[in-house]
Amino acid sequence: MRTQVLVVGAGPCGTTIANLLGVYGIESLLVDKAPEVVDFPRGVGVDDESLRVFQSAGLGETVHADMIQNQLLRYFDSSGRYLVEIAPSAQPFGWPRRNSFLQPMLEKKLRAGLDRFTHVGLRVSTELLSLTQDDEGVTAQMRDASGKECTVRADYVVGADGGRSTVRKLAGATLEGSTLGARWLVVDLKDSALHAPYAGNYISSTRPHVSIDLPFGYRRFEFRLADHETDEEMLKPEAVERLIRKHFDWDGPMPGLERGRIYQHHSRVADRFRTGRVFLAGDAAHLQPPWFGQGMNSGIRDAANVAWKLAAVLAHGADDRILDTYHTERHGHAKAMVDLATTLGKVYSPKTKLGERARSLLLRASVHVPSARDYILQMKFKPMPFYRQGIVAHRRTDKESPVGKMFIQPAVETEDGTRLRLDDAVGPWFAVIGINTDPADHLSEESAAYWRSLGARLVRVNRSRAGKHLRSADADTLLLDDTAGGFRDWHKGDRSREIVVLRPDRYLAATCSRDELDGLTARFRGIVPVHEPAVRT
C-alpha cells in the first residue's frame, strides 16, 4: 500500500493530525494497535488553543458541544477551606480558555470526523513492527489482529503512539527527564451526586487529591497513594468509596465506578522530534504530570504544527527543510509546559505540614494583590508558544513584535452579512491579511505568484461598516468587516502591522506596512522556498 503520510497512534493527537491532513487534501493512513478507543480515565481539560485547532479541522463546534465551558479551577487546603480560583474570562482566540471533557467521547468524535475524507483511512488492531527509511520515503511493516502482515510505503511517518511509542524506539529517539515516585489513583464516577461545579485541587502534605466536574453527570477523583497501598487494593470499589467519603461531603449511595487506573507521573521530553522522514508528536514526544491539564493540549499543538508543514511540502512544493522547524518550534515550548506542570505538582503536594501552610497563606494573600489576582485568575502564568526561530520573519528592531505568537481570532462579517470567526472566514491555510488595505495592491507580479504557489489567500479587513470607497479590492481578494473591533484594537494605528501573514496553525508569521510587502515576500520566500510539488509514482 502507498500513502503520503502514515500516522501511528489514533489517540487525540494522531486523530487530529489525520483530520487536519484530510482538510489539507493529503492522502494519509491512521493506524492503532488497539481494537477501539481505550476507555481509561485520561485527559479531562481542553484549552482554547486546542479548540482552535479542532476548528481548523472542521470539528470545533462538534466537539465543544460535549464540553463544560468556562470551568472554574479552585484551590483548597487539606481541610477543604477555599484558597483561590482560576476563572479566565477573555477569549482572544475565539474559544473559552478552560473546558472539561470526556476523552473517550472526544476520541470517538475525532475518529468520526475522518469519515468526511475518501483520502484518509483508519485501521485499528494494527501493530507497527518496523520502519525503514531511504531518500524517497519510509517503509513500514505492520501486522493486524489475525496475524497477517502488510507493508505500507509512505513519504513521511508521524508517531503519535503514546508514552511507550514504538515509532520513537524505531527512530532511535530517547526521552530525557525523570519519573516521579508517587502513584495516583484516578477514577471516574457516573451519575455523581456531589454538587461542586468546578475542578478542585486540594493541597495536602498527606493526601493531596483532586475533584473535577465532567460532562453528563461524570466526576473525576484523583488521590495520591501511600507507599504501602497496593494497586490491587486501592482499585477496589470499596477502597475508592472510602477515600471519597473521607475527603468529600457525600450524601446517599455511591454510584458505580465507571473507570479507574493508577498512574505514575513522568516529566520527560524526547531529545529530537524529527529523525529524517519520521516525526514524534504528543505523548510519544513529551510526557508531563497532569497538574496543569496540558498533556493532551501540548500534543494538539504538535498536531497543528507538523500537519500543515507536511501539507506544505506534499501539496504545495515547499522545501523539505521547513520540516526541521517542527523540532525548533515545538521542543522548547513542550519542555516549558513539562517544567511548569512538574513545579505545580510540587505546589500541590508539599512534603510537610509547614510547607502546606506556607502555600495556603501565599495563595490566600494573592487575591488581595490586583496584579497577582489577575495573573492567576486569567491564567497569565501559562507559557504561550512564542516562536523566535522557525517559520517566522521577525523584525530585528521591533522588540514588541507579535510575530511568532498565536494571532487573535475576532468575529468578522462577510460581504453578505454572515458573521463568522476569523478562521472560518479566511479558510484553513495561509492568509495574507491587509488591515484597511488590499494586499493585492502592494504585490508585484512575482510576489503575487509566490503567494499563489503557496496557496495563500489574500484578505482585506475593513473597519466596521466602511463606506464603499474603502471596500475596493481585487477580484480574488476576500473582503471582511471588522465587526467586533478586534483588528482595530490589535492594530492600534501601527503602520508596521498593516499587513499580517497568518500561518495555517494560526501563528503570526510576519507583519509589515503596505509599502514593505514586496520586500517581506522576498524574505519569506527564503524562509519557505517553494518548488514544483513532486509527482508521485
Tell me the β content: 25-35%
- The secondary-structure class comes to alpha+beta
User: What low-confidence regions span 5 or more consecutive residues with pLDDT below 50?
Assistant: none
Helix content: 25-40%
What is the terminal separation in angstroms? 12 Å
Mean pLDDT reading: 90
Taking Cα atoms only, what radius of gyration do you get, to the nearest Å? 24 Å
What general form does the structure show? globular
- Report the biggest beta sheet as strand number plus sense, adding barrel if it closes: 8 strands, mixed
Number of helices: 15
Q: State the total count of DSSP E strands.
A: 26
Description:
With 537 residues, the chain is α+β, with helices and mostly antiparallel strands. Helix 8 runs antiparallel to helix 9 (325-348).
Set out the fold topology:
Layout: E1 2-8, H1 12-23, E2 28-31, E3 45-46, H2 48-56, H3 60-64, E4 68-69, E5 73-76, E6 82-86, E7 99-100, H4 103-113, E8 120-123, E9 126-134, E10 137-144, E11 149-159, H5 166-171, E12 175-189, E13 199-202, E14 209-213, E15 219-224, H6 231-234, H7 237-247, E16 257-270, E17 274-275, E18 278-280, E19 286-287, H8 295-316, H9 325-348, H10 353-366, H11 370-377, E20 411-414, E21 419-421, H12 422-426, E22 431-435, H13 445-454, E23 457-463, E24 478-482, H14 486-491, E25 499-502, E26 508-512, H15 517-527
Parallel strand pairs: 1-2, 1-11, 2-8, 5-13, 11-18, 22-23, 23-24
Antiparallel strand pairs: 3-7, 4-7, 5-6, 9-10, 10-11, 12-15, 12-16, 13-14, 14-15, 16-19, 17-18, 20-21, 20-24, 22-25, 25-26
Helix pairs in contact: 1-4, 1-8, 8-9
